[in-house]
Amino acid sequence: MYKYIAVLALCVMGFKTMAGDKFLYLEEVEGKPALDWVKAQNKISLDHFSKNKSLADLQTKALGFLNSKDRIPYGKFRGKYIYNFWQDQKNTRGIIRRTSAGNYLAKDTTWDTVLDVDQLAALEKENWVYKGLTCLEPDESLCLLQLSRGGKDASIYREYDLEKKSFVKGGFYLDEAKSDVDWIDKDTIIVGTDFGAGSLTDSGYPRIVKIWKRGAKLKDAKTLFEGDKSDVVVYAYRLRERAIPMILVVKAKTFYEGEIFLKVADADLVKLALPKDGEVNGLLDGKLIVSLKSDWDKTKFLQGQLVALNLSKLLAGVVEGKVIASPTKSMTLDKTHVSESKILVSVLENVQGKVFEFTPSKSGWKKKQISVPEKGMARIVDVSLKGEALIEYENFTTPSSLYYFGVDRGLSIAKSLPSKFNSKDLVVAQNWVTSKDGTKVPYFVIHKKDLKYNGANPTLLYGYGGFEISMTPYYSSLMGNFWLEKGGVFVLSNIRGGGEFGPSWHKQALKLNRMRAYEDFFAIAEDLIERKITSPANLGAQGGSNGGLLMGVALTKRPDLFNAIVCQVPLLDMMRYHKLLAGASWVGEYGSPEVKEERDYLLTYSPYQNVKKDEKYPKALFMTSTKDDRVHPGHARKMAAKMMDMGHELYYYENTEGGHGGSANNKQRAYWYALMYTYLYETLGLK
């Protein structure tokens, strides 16, 4: 349902843990002692890796791929145009540009630049990172431009006119905060932001939503809804229904559960009789389109189904509707996009993607599969109000192709990526392994056809396993050139906690069952070793964010399985995570250290608390960002400092900007990748 996936406060329950934590000062993000420590650790690591000639070579090659002119310019429908955000060697911070749908399909697309972020940053002497546009439908020329300093989640919003290519004089403006906005009409917006003391949740997101009229001061905006401080976030947006303005308000009590309210025209807000974990996808033909994350009590609707509910009756408290689509044992509904005339749904069947079109009719919902290639990943990039769509297809060895699906013209290739590495001698397999509790868990393995099963192959195992996010096949120029062509093996795990098999796959690894995700990961590592694809001496693991937590658990729980760990923008101190930045919003995923049973369970695997002085660990690489205001950089800092204090060797690198993505532009991204692969070459012996 929810699209949202401080500094220090002592709490009575956590005091004993914190009292003995001599690395607590590293949680002060911009504190001088902390930054001095970061600078010193960066120097040690970079002095070491700079001696390896691979680093400079990989950085140059990576930047070439990232800045390549033959990349696909992924588009977004806005009014009569398709827009694209583009970064390259010339446009480091990027440009926002547009073209017509017909021109977009042409071999040599011509673009019209509407905003140059590099020029804007230079003019205003700000480190602007483009974060997106929120535009007024249906023509979508009047927009709220989101800009971040250094790539943080916290951003400013400024009103921008795409037709005039200029900021609106005296237009809407929001100071830096983790805000959420949408348009009601050309003179009115919905806004959730930092309105001052007490206006944010414990997670640091908006607690109050207001209606703001043009010309009025923000402090005079009219309050539409107030949530509780303990909520994750409160946000609102206008449903796509032009005839009658409808505002949907979401009061997210946890990351996955909450209450949904609807305001129709000038009427009062009405709480909708929806399940607490239902996700509203949109409105079509008077029907509210809802995805179900669990069985719906007192109805016949089941977990994973997509349903259409009669809105007028729902507003009266009566649930009446029909099933649009249902999952199967091997197939789950992944993403749903609602236009004014149809619904497009991407599905995963045994972790491979398909796309279906559903249109309303007198007899129900007509279903039609859109004929993009199979045996790979088909995903919906964007859908217009009219029902046009951009659909991407790729797999591990097939370069990405972007298809245009027209309302009347069917499917055609809009753009395609040329081959970036030799994939003819590669093979892709999907293997299954039995986890500790008996569950069958899949993973993809990609390697050269002449692979020798001698246990000596450098292998990189990637994992995430959280927040119902699916790990699916994808084409990577960098991985193909830097790893697969050189004889390395890449493995993509589909462990529980993700969404590969729907909501139940995610829920099986929540809170007190979290270890199932880690046991799945270890089972895959053991299977790779048992098949003699690799051995502990040649096996590395990589993960970021929640996947960084997975890396921390792998490092501390099963160091015998790995010789390299790439731990990126991670959570690691699970006794403190809920006190740092957006951490409180993830209690629904991990459990709370404030609840004894959940705290005791967290202590069994929390990496920071499970580091031992007398254990032998692989020499890990920790990577994070000073500007990450989602997952606190203190996690990586403290973990590295504690391990080094115990005498363990490791590498540490912290980019000074970039936010949760770790980098803010292609030059930084190139260095990030180059550093990672140089580390893997050294530790796993790939040449």
> CA-to-CA gap between the ends?
45 Å
Please give the CATH class of the largest domain.
Alpha Beta
**Individual helix count:** 15
Major β-sheet annotation: 8 strands, mixed
In CATH, the architecture of the largest domain is 3-Layer(aba) Sandwich
CATH third-tier fold name of the largest domain = Rossmann fold
Structural write-up:
Helix 3 crosses helix 15. This protein has five domains: 32-63 and 441-684, Alpha/Beta hydrolase fold, catalytic domain (Rossmann fold, 3-Layer(aba) Sandwich); 71-177; 181-209 and 220-271, no CATH class; 278-326, no CATH class; 327-417. With 687 residues, it is an alpha+beta fold. The chain is globular, with a radius of gyration of 25 Å. The longest helix has 19 residues, at 666-684. The protein has an eight-stranded mixed sheet with strand order 30-31-33-32-34-35-36-37, sandwiched between helices. It has 15 helices and 37 strands.
